[in-house]
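Bumping with the actual sequence this time:
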Amino acid sequence: MPHLNASQDRYLRIFSLYVGVETGEILNEEFANDVQQLRESGISQEDYKATIKRSGSHLTPFAKFLIKYGFPYPMANFLRTYITRGEIKPFLIHSGIFFVSEVDRRIFSQN
């Protein structure tokens, strides 16, 4: 597996409590049932966006899944890909930390 940054590695360790990262084998029966339910019901684009933006009047099934298993929101795209495609792609984990250049900073501060 290619080199992961510290955040990706830390978050992947949380995922590995439930799924063998190298094998893809689900290690927890309740987790397997919850993943299967989400696969069957699907994760709509609206539900996914509401989960990411943490908006909406109710928690989506996907948001409840994240909370139930203690997955932080930077893992949402990674987990959505895992649930919908069965693929484990650690580079989809984003820490939410962005570096802004001095030029960009000036542009943002003017707005």
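The tokens above came from a reply further down the thread. Helices lie at 6-15, 29-41, 45-53, 61-68, 76-85, 102-110.
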